[in-house]
Design a protein that fits this description.
- By secondary structure, this protein is α+β, with helices and mostly antiparallel strands.
- Helices cover 41% and strands 24% of the residues.
- Strands 3-6-4-5 form a four-stranded antiparallel beta sheet. A two-stranded antiparallel ribbon has the order 1-2.
- The termini are far apart.
Amino acid sequence: MHSDERRKAIADVLRAADAPVSASALAEKFSVSRQIIVGDIALLRSSGEEILATPRGYVTPKEARGIVRRVAVKHTPQEMEAELNAIVDNGCTVIDVIVDHPIYGQLTGQLQISSRYDVEQFLARVQAHDAAPLSMLTGGIHLHTLRCPDAAACERACAALKAAGLLLDD
């Protein structure tokens, strides 16, 4: 398979996927190295393909079902699990995390966390890499973009965050 054909096939796989696809999985599928896939993704992006990198792999934006809302939260790193579980337990997906950096402006990290399993995997990666969450740059204050199936789910998630003392109020 030529590189142009492989890149088209990669884009097709990502468009059809219901979950993030890792570079390693793509490398295995196309019998190339992970680094070749990383380069292919860069070239696809430069040609206009919208491909997002999440901690679990690459995704292409899908038609949003339900409602999308941003919530402002504040918590310590030790409260991150409670925050994420409060959101996913109420049927919502944490699409991203956003912080305002004093030098770089708005920084966004793609998350795509929809379940307790996703939360566990995310926290395991944070621990395995001894990584600090982006919210550490802003004293714990950050935004999350949520995708919720309906307004009731969004209200439940916000109520759970508020009850846990994590929702940033006026």
